[in-house]
Amino acid sequence: MDDEMTITVDSEDYLVRREGDSLRVGRRVGGDTTWLDDVELAALPEGARSALERGDSADPALVLALRGVVAAEVRRGG
Length: 78
Fold this sequence. Notes:
The protein is of the alpha+beta class. It contains 2 helices and 4 strands. A 4-stranded antiparallel β-sheet has the order 1-2-3-4.
């Protein structure tokens, strides 16, 4: 995975950045990035982790995992 990757979930673009054993998930708004959540890589399904390693932003396992992260953030009121 490059430093950052853009992944489209339900027609919305999210920025992900690997930082050590975590994945930061954010949104770019007007040139600024708003970070929504940090997720432990170990908490992601193997398919999603493999897609990150390959840099495959369209992999269904990765998109599904990110959709879950975004839904959890919405439920928390973020």
